[in-house]
């Protein structure tokens, strides 16, 4: 059964769309777990500005950052129900709901940032965006999220043997759980907002994420060892509730898609700068960053691929991703 947190109940009463006055200006509410100023938050604000320009001010966006509307898994449900209009979340937060998008959560599926961009900016990226409609959201664009690596309060991780027995928080996705299990670690799925106290109180030893999250969520204060195994490159995705989408005219739908695509370049610039700034910030805090020979980690991931890439269509999708240049 789906329980609405207090904020969402208030939102339900206020109705998903706030239509004001004779100008019929619609302000769409968009959720983000990150704080104000984070590249995804700024990119969605930029999307809102582009949308307002394109629609002559008929549509705009208000970003509720810092998980004001709830933790990601809950906000996805609320977006599916039309309680929240839009959402910027990690593809990982969808877990295995969208089989095609599960492929984007496979460890080491991307070889480089160029490979990641070539796949997502091309027909494969479009095909996966379209697959989200089956779960009642319309996915408009991907944003960058760099590479995710392990960090913890105990010791540097240099090989899979160091992960053995470690309690590591992962996103609420079975693929992430199996990835950590393949390395001999104990995966603990929990909401992002609980990771800081989880590490601080010793409930978990660490987690995994990119530099900007490690930095802006304060995790570097409680987990000093950041090991560059770069096991995942999971894109962020900007989605709109299908209920809201179906109420738009085809012309406006096209403008939404256009604005979302146009916001991507801005997000990528912000992202690059944030990765550099966050690396400096965590080092200034005393984080110990170590390089890792990735091959043994890559070699350990066979069982994850075997478990999730069984369907011939998904096998074909993985093969096409691997065959993409970059
Ligand atoms: C971040 C991502 C967030 C959230 C978080 C997490 O990299 O931007 O949307 O999914 O990871 O690990 O929960």
TrEMBL record:
Pfam families: DctP. GO terms for molecular function: carbohydrate binding. Keywords: Signal. One of its GO terms (biological process) is transmembrane transport. The keyword rRNA-binding does not apply. One of its GO terms (cellular component) is outer membrane-bounded periplasmic space. Residues 1-24 form the signal peptide. The keyword Transmembrane helix does not apply. NCBIfam families: dctP (TIGR00787), TRAP_S1 (NF037995). This is C4-dicarboxylate ABC transporter.
């Amino acid at each position: 059964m789906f329980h609405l947190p207090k904020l969402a109940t208030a939102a339900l009463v206020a109705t998903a769309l706030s239509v004001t006055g004779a100008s019929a200006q619609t302000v769409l509410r968009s959720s983000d777990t990150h704080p104000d100023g984070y590249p995804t938050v700024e990119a969605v604000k930029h999307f809102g500005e582009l949308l307002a320009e394109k629609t002559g001010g008929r549509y705009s966006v208000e970003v509720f950052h810092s998980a004001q509307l709830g933790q990601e898994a809950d906000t996805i449900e609320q977006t599916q129900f039309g309680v929240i209009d839009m959402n910027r979340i990690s593809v990982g937060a969808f877990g295995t709901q969208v089989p095609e998008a599960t492929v984007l959560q496979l460890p080491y599926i991307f070889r480089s940032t160029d490979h990641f961009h070539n796949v997502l900016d091309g027909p494969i990226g479009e095909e996966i965006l379209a697959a989200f409609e089956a779960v009642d959201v319309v996915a408009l664009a991907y944003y960058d999220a760099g590479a995710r690596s392990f960090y913890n309060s105990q010791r540097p991780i240099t090989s899979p043997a160091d992960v053995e027995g470690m309690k590591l928080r992962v996103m609420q996705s079975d693929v992430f759980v199996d990835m950590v299990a393949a390395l001999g670690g104990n995966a603990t799925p929990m909401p992002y907002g609980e990771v800081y106290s989880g590490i601080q109180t010793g409930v978990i030893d660490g987690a995994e994420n990119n530099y900007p999250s490690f930095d802006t969520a304060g995790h570097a204060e409680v987990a000093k060892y950041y090991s560059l195994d770069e096991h995942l490159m999971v894109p962020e995705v900007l989605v709109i509730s299908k209920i809201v989408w179906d109420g738009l005219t085809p012309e406006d739908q096209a403008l939404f898609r256009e604005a979302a695509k146009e916001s991507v370049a801005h997000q990528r610039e912000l992202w690059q700068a944030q990765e550099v700034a966050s690396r400096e910030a965590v080092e200034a805090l005393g984080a110990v960053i170590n390089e890792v020979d990735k091959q043994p980690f890559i070699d350990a991931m066979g069982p994850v691929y075997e478990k999730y890439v069984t369907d011939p269509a998904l096998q074909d999708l993985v093969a096409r991703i691997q065959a993409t240049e970059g």
